[in-house]
Amino acid sequence: MTTLTFPVLHVLADGKFHSGEALAQHFKVTRATIWNAVQHAENLGIEIFSVRGRGYKLPSAINLLDKNAVLKAIGEQRAWFALEVLDEVNSTNTYLMQNKHAAHATCVAAHVQTNGKGRRGRTWVSQLGASLTFSLLWRFQCGAAALSGLSLCVGVALIRALRDFDVNTAQLKWPNDVLIEGKKLAGILIELQGDLEGPSAAVIGIGINLDFNSSLPKNVLESIDQPAIDLASVKSIDQNALLGSVLKHLASVLSGFEASGFGALRNEWLGYHAYENKPVRMLLPNGTDVQGVVKGVAEDGILLVETALGLQRFSAGEISLRGIV
User: Fold this and answer.
1) 275-323 and 67-271 share a CATH fold
2) Element (H, E) at 186
3) For burial by CB atoms within 10 Å, which of 15, 54, 209, 312 has the most?
4) Tell me: the pLDDT tens digits for 62-115?
5) Which long-range contacts (CB under 8 A, 24 or more apart) does 180-183 make?
6) Which are the contacts of 144, defined by CB distance < 8 A and separation ≥ 6?
7) Which fold has domain 275-323?
8) 194 three-class SS
């Protein structure tokens, strides 16, 4: 990794041209070193304009993550969290899963993920300024078997955070997506550690689409395999303020979840559910599908669907849900 890459990007974040000579003087290095830093950024998929006589420029100004700004946005609960902001990482989830001694409520956010994880083996597209990607380690005294419905609770925290910024049209898609206008805005990926019965830990990975059009190259946009939407098309929100708000609400929701389970949040979750009482198609692992009408979720977060065979229960690991137009 070129150590100057992200310091240079912090300078370019204003969206203006900066000459190679001026950057070299600023960092007290050669112009060749600046060129190498820019090349590394481009290898990460970050688009940088290079114009002879003018220098380097990002396609638009970018609001980068700032640890102090996030902690300030969390407010009184900031003491709960151990926050790390990384420039580049393969996956924030993997980073925390491999750190067996990470403290409770450790949050790792990254400017760029080179191998971000999505559900069902997908890759989460993550580029500088295009998305807010972070993972939170939360330790539970209960076993992993008692964590059913956890992803639904995390969804409630995301909706509450968005409503802090008057984004009131967001809905939840069971079990772990946030939608606006039926398109994916955010996703949740939870990986568990520990015993089924003893103390356990959850690494909660969250990705929120911030700004596609000004931050993602065309080929990356075309690689996204489902309808997606970004916050920039709805409302401009500072990502530091957004991350702080999400963490604040996660602290509240996760504490309540450990004390009372998903049941205490079930009615609120149902109020946000995009497919409640609507026809859906469940894609099963064996390649077949089942159609029916969603009839809520159970106290343990299991999806309830009225099918030709009667009321059936579906767990998150078994199916992929699609709406029927």
Assistant:
1) no
2) strand 183-194
3) 209
4) 989 999 999 999 998 899 999 999 999 999 999 999 998 999 999 999 999 886
5) 180/229, 180/234, 181/229, 182/227, 182/274, 182/323, 183/227, 183/228, 183/229
6) 192, 193, 194, 195, 196, 200
7) SH3 type barrels. (2.30.30)
8) strand
Which residue has 């009667």 as its token pair? 310
Please, what CATH class does the domain formed by 5-57 belong to? mainly alpha
Backbone angles phi, psi at 194, to 5 degrees: 105, -175
3-state secondary structure 201-256: EEEEEEEEECCCCCCCCHHHHHHCCCCECCHHHCCCCCHHHHHHHHHHHHHHHHHH
Q: What is the pLDDT of residues 294-303, one digit of tens each?
A: 999 999 999 9
- For the chain, the structural domain boundaries read 5-57, 67-271, 275-323
Q: Strand pairing partners for 27? A: none
Percentage of the chain beyond pLDDT 90 is: 68
Question: CA nearest 112: which of 188, 196, 41, 186?
Answer: 41
pLDDT digits (tens, 9 = 90+) for 123-144: 555 678 889 999 999 999 887 7
Cβ contact 324:280 at 8 Å:
yes
**Whole-number percent of the chain with pLDDT over 70:** 89
Task: For residue 91, give the 3-state DSSP assignment.
Answer: coil
**First-last CA distance in the chain:** 47
Which residue type does 236 have? Answer: S
> Six-digit token pair at 88?
């580049």
HSE (side-chain half, CA atoms, 13 Å) at 77: 14
Q: Which tokens belong to 164?
A: 């802090």
Report the Cα 264 to chain-centroid distance in Å: 24
Question: Strand 82-89 relative to strand 106-113: parallel, antiparallel, unpaired?
Answer: parallel
For residue 54, which of 21, 31, 32, 97 has the smallest C-alpha distance?
21
> By the 8 A CB rule, do 138 and 105 touch?
yes
Instruction: Please list the residues that pair with 311 across neighbouring strands.
Output: 306
Architecture of domain 67-271: 2-Layer Sandwich (3.30)
Rounded Cα distance, 275 and 290, in Å: 15
Q: Which helix (H) or strand (E) holds 106?
A: strand 106-113
